[in-house]
Amino acid sequence: GEGPLERLWAFAERSGPEEVDSALAGYFARAAAAILLRRPEEVAARLRRRGRSLRDGFLRRLRSEPLAELFLHTVRAKRPCDVIFPADGLIPTLVGILHVEGHCGERQEAARRCL
Fold first, then answer.
1. Which of 43, 46, 86, 87 shows the smallest number of beta carbons within 10 Å?
2. Alpha-carbon distance 43 to 40, whole Å?
3. Does the structure show a pLDDT above 60 at 103?
4. What angle do CA 21, 25, 30 make, to 5 degrees?
5. Using CA atoms, how far apart are residues 28 and 44, in angstroms rounded to an integer?
6. Interior CA angle at 64 toward 56 and 19, to 5°?
7. What is the DSSP annotation of the chain?
8. Cβ distance 45 to 69 under 8 Å?
9. How far apart are CA 88 and CA 85, in angstroms?
10. Using one digit for the tens of pLDDT, what is the confidence trace for 25-39?
11. Which pLDDT tens digit goes with each residue over 81-93?
């Protein structure tokens, strides 16, 4: 089964975008960032197994400043062992968010921050 760390990050992967309000996103981002800061290698190793699925789920919920900041933290790893998300295709995905009609302004602003 999944451990507590995986269940926490499942929020970013599995919750519906409509379930992610700014307050909940802020709580999640603070908890996840604290864990990442304490044990970056361990967290990265465990979450890396989810790879693109976790990254894509995270990008679908990228509607708030706390989630954008957390996402930036995960892709700005200083050491290769701390990398969580695969970077391939990331820039075109973020640019695509900016150009798709119907995307809410918050999501487009978060994509801009990440670029």
1. 87
2. 5
3. no
4. 155
5. 17
6. 70
7. ---HHHHHHHHHHHS-GGG--HHHHHHHHHHHHHHHHH-HHHHHHHHHTTHHHHHHHHHHT--SHHHHHHHHHHHS-SSGGG--S--TTHHHHHHHHHH-TT--HHHHHHHHHH-
8. no
9. 9
10. 889 899 999 999 999
11. 888 887 888 889 9
**Structure-token match 């801009």, residue found:** 112
b/e 75-86 (16+ beta carbons within 10 angstroms → b):
eebeeeebbbbe
Residue type for position 45 = A
Q: How far apart are CA 95 and CA 62, in angstroms?
A: 13
Q: What tokens were used for 90?
A: 């990331």
Q: Which two tokens stand for residue 34?
A: 């604290």
Write down how long the chain is: 115
- If one counts every other C-beta atom within 10 angstroms of the C-beta of residue 113, the result is 15
